[in-house]
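FAQ: What does a ligand-bound record look like?

Like this one, built around flavin-adenine dinucleotide:
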Amino acid sequence: MRILVCVKRIPMVGGRIVLTPDGGQIDTSMLGFTVSPHEECAVEEAVRIVEAVRAKGGSGEVTVLTLGPPEAADQLRDAVALGASKCVLLETDREWGPIATAEAIAQEARERGPFDLLLFGNEAADSGDFQVGIRVAHLLDLPVVTGIKGLALEPSGSAGSLAGSLPRASARREYRGVEESFELGLPAVVTVKEGINLPRYPSLPGRMRAKKAVIDSLALGWQGEALSTESLRVPTVERRRAELLGRGAEAVPALVALLESLGLLS
Amino acid sequence: MTQVLVLVEHDADGLIDSSRRAVTFARGLAVANANSKVAVCVIGEVPTGGAELASAIGRQAAEYGVASLHVVPFTGYAPLAWARALGQLADSLSADAVVAAGTDRGSEVMAHLGAITGEEMVANCFAVSRSGTHEWHLTRQRWGGSLIEEAWLEAGRALLTVATDAIPPASVVEPVAAPLELELEAYEPQLADGDTSVVATESPEQAGGVSLASARVVVSGGRGVGGVEGFSVIEQLAAYFGGAVGVSRAVTSLGWRPHSEQVGQTGTRVTPDLYMACGISGAIQHLAGCQSAKTMIAINTDGDAPIMARADYAVIGDVNEVLPALLEVLRARG
Ligand SMILES: Cc1cc2nc3c(=O)[nH]c(=O)nc-3n(C[C@H](O)[C@H](O)[C@H](O)COP(=O)(O)OP(=O)(O)OC[C@H]3O[C@@H](n4cnc5c(N)ncnc54)[C@H](O)[C@@H]3O)c2cc1C
Ligand SMILES: Nc1ncnc2c1ncn2[C@@H]1O[C@H](COP(=O)(O)O)[C@@H](O)[C@H]1O
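The answer part, i.e. the structure of the complex:
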């Protein structure tokens, strides 16, 4: 079982986004970096699948890939700490759009493949383009399901086992209060949402492995794109100062009066 | 003439709210380009789903200023087949723009369409204008709405999804000379076998209680609640209002509560009348899920927490002191 997981480095913004003076980008000078929670869950899911395969005597490995600046190696190492074994960094000198990103990922997947399963986040935390996984599936001519909150791999055929011939995937998600499920044969692309699992904390041996991980990098040249950013801005929300109802339990009468005025008390 | 084609979704009562917003967005584009029209595409079992549903959709489409209503008869949801059908219909209408609400399905189908044709698909737009035949100016949300981008798209045809929470649905006030109800025109796409190989099977969810997404009152707890036990009061308070429990990601990551209760960018977006944020700092990713609340009350020991700048009312204090006291007074009232 060979699984490819794609993650994207993003700044860890907290209470407020601060832009650079020219307004061109997020000021990351004071920020740490991470990946989207969806992608963290994708890594965890991949590691769990491979662990299950190995427990049955099969073999498997998780390759994690990112396209981004050289520093994105940190996010690959974070994935190794969770159990991924190989790292690929496609180095770029600027933010790439979804078409170029998908083409580069598909090309790399072809060269390093075949992979039985390609996992993505449902959408990246920053751009939220909702499409890189789908585009990669089309480029590789693979079936794809998105927004998945539950994934089970079942042996295909009675004689098959998770460790042997390629299993089938059964994937489920929610749509307007209804559960939807999909059946598909591997190889396939699956984009996942946070909640599909609860990612583990990296273990000490995991962190040691991460330090020593070999990062396979490849520099890519930018080709030009049809969509270009003109400017970024932080939406102007009224920064209202909340009306203080009081401190501690002494605020309760004021709270009750407020709830009453909102028509919430019978 | 310009045509804007909108993929809409419906339930048993007609067009869903996000689709009305997507149509409103599309009409904005059509109005700015004189001589333009909005066409709508419905995929599903409408003709067989009963005359009443067809008539409801026809009436709503007319109300929202749509010029033509196209129905692709199809059973079930198969993302690739839907995209193929939408693309073929767009070609046959020579549509200049194809638009869908940024719902799970809308985004998925539009991404497939972009992948099929190799065109750009731009997500989460809430303003669009055209300058020349190959240039589009777009305003769109990034970071779940915490950042806004102005962008240029160079393309003959624009594929866009709509950030529907930024567009209030607006019907056309006086449908001048428009029919009161649009006729459904059937459209038969040419599908290949592989287009229907990934298809959804629906099963009713066994969800009990009030759904978080539609609750009128949400009582939310964050790391400040301190532990699993602290959520007992939050649950009781939510139940008192007939509302739902929400949590921050810190709480789900700690394993205190299930992810299904998470509010935010990677959780559920809520739109209650009252949102009570208890022991929540107010990170932008959390606010992305609750900023449409009509009234927000924050309870936090830190008067300078970011949530205080977004809440309408605040109590500075320990949630484990304030909430039990509040619950006691409410219960005493009966
Ligand atoms: C890409 C991305 C997506 C994310 N998506 C989400 C999301 O969907 N939803 C989400 O919630 N987060 C999300 N996050 C995480 C987010 O950035 C914050 O880390 C998280 O919301 C913090 O949760 P919190 O407010 O409970 O915890 P903290 O930030 O630790 O805040 C705890 C608060 O409780 C207060 N407090 C402490 N003790 C008490 C007490 N006894 N009584 C009252 N107040 C007290 C503190 O003053 C503090 O303000 C995301 C992050 C990233 C990077
Ligand atoms: N630069 C990137 N490097 C690696 N994976 C990416 C990158 N951009 C997007 N992805 C993957 O594609 C998913 C969807 O991204 P998007 O279509 O940009 O919303 C993300 O959750 C990632 O799994």
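Follow-up question: can I read anything off the structure? Yes, for example: Chain B has a mean pLDDT of 91.
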